[in-house]
Write a structure and sequence with these properties.
Elements: E1 2-6, E2 9-12, E3 17-24, E4 32-38, E5 45-50, E6 57-59, E7 67-72, E8 77-82, E9 91-98, E10 111-112, E11 116-121
Parallel strand pairs: 2-11
Antiparallel strand pairs: 1-3, 3-8, 4-5, 4-9, 5-6, 7-8, 9-10, 9-11
């Protein structure tokens, strides 16, 4: 199983980034997929989840209305569109997968990628 994130970078407050995660080695359409983030020394934060049913999405309050998670089942890619970015969004962002939904905490995910860094400066 491989999850490979890309799309991170440095932006200013109010900017946008779109993260991508190419997933291989598991039945993409049958897995619960999501994004979480982590700042060194702080707890991991669950950001957004796309359920097995593509219409089912959930978001942390901190990103709701600004971030959008989506799935390309044909190409096995998970996306995270991030708009109106704030310095508080600075973190390493990870793509993750698990066979069941719902996901309650980051630790429920059995698979994760290596992460892509997002830095937002004021």
């Amino acid at each position: 199983v491989q999850l490979a994130e890309s799309g991170g970078g440095s932006v200013h407050t109010g900017g946008s980034l779109k993260l991508s995660c190419v997933v291989s080695g598991l039945p993409f359409a049958d897995y619960c997929l999501g994004w979480f983030r982590q700042v060194p020394g702080m707890e991991r934060e669950l950001g957004a989840i796309a359920g097995i049913d593509s219409d089912s999405t959930t978001y942390a309050d901190s990103v709701k209305g600004r971030f959008t998670i989506s799935k390309d089942n044909a190409n096995h890619i998970l996306y995270l569109q991030m708009n109106d970015l704030e310095p508080e969004d600075t973190a390493m962002y990870y793509c993750a997968a698990e066979t069941f939904c719902p996901i309650a905490v980051v630790g429920d995910f059995g698979y994760r990628g290596q992460g892509t860094q997002v830095t937002v400066s004021s």
